[in-house]
Specification:
Layout lengths: L1 H17 L3 E5 L3 E4 L9 H19 L4 E3 L6 H7 L8 H8 L4 E11 L2 E10 L4 E11 L3 H16 L9
């Protein structure tokens, strides 16, 4: 009986070690402003979008499930075809051009200066299907509020369980 458990343990460890992290394109978060302030770009919001996007990449890069790919080679396509949440699938084409297996994208919807919602998805580029998603609403509009929202959605939604096994 001990031999069977030894073999099973070995196979489990070997299969886990053999699993390669998925090459993942993580796009910048995009703002959808439906607040009374919509219509003009605020410097602090632009900065917070960059801050939250960087935090999202950093948190995902710490997971052994992901190998982040550099999106800079497709910066021009991202700029001209954006916003990506409205481009009818161009985000998938851009991520595939980067050699990615998965793409991560998201929006921040601003309802008012104190009510914001983050929605982030992970999509399998082979199937085009969302394999994980998460949303969190925050109350507040400071750097720390945004970062707390990103940390929460990554920990409690995106990485709460292992991603489905890709075959």
């Amino acid at each position: 009986m001990l031999q069977i458990w030894t073999v099973l343990t070995f196979l489990l460890v070997a299969s886990a070690a053999a699993a390669e992290p998925a090459k993942t394109a993580v796009f910048d978060l995009e703002l959808i402003d439906t607040s009374a302030e919509s219509g003009h770009v605020r410097e602090d919001q632009s900065r917070r979008l960059a801050l939250a996007s960087a935090a999202l990449r950093e948190l995902l890069s710490k997971s052994p499930q992901f190998q982040l790919v550099d999106i800079a080679p497709q910066a021009e396509a991202i700029r001209t075809k954006g916003p990506l949440h409205k481009c009818n699938g161009c985000d998938e084409d851009i991520a595939k051009a980067l050699g990615a297996d998965l793409e991560v994208s998201g929006i921040v919807q601003k309802t008012s200066n104190l009510i914001l919602s983050f929605a982030i998805t992970i999509k399998d580029l082979r199937t085009g299907k969302m394999i994980r998603g998460g949303q969190v609403d925050i109350r507040g509009n400071t750097d720390e509020d945004w970062l707390r929202g990103i940390r929460w959605v990554v920990k409690n939604r995106l990485l709460a369980e292992p991603l489905p096994v890709r075959s």
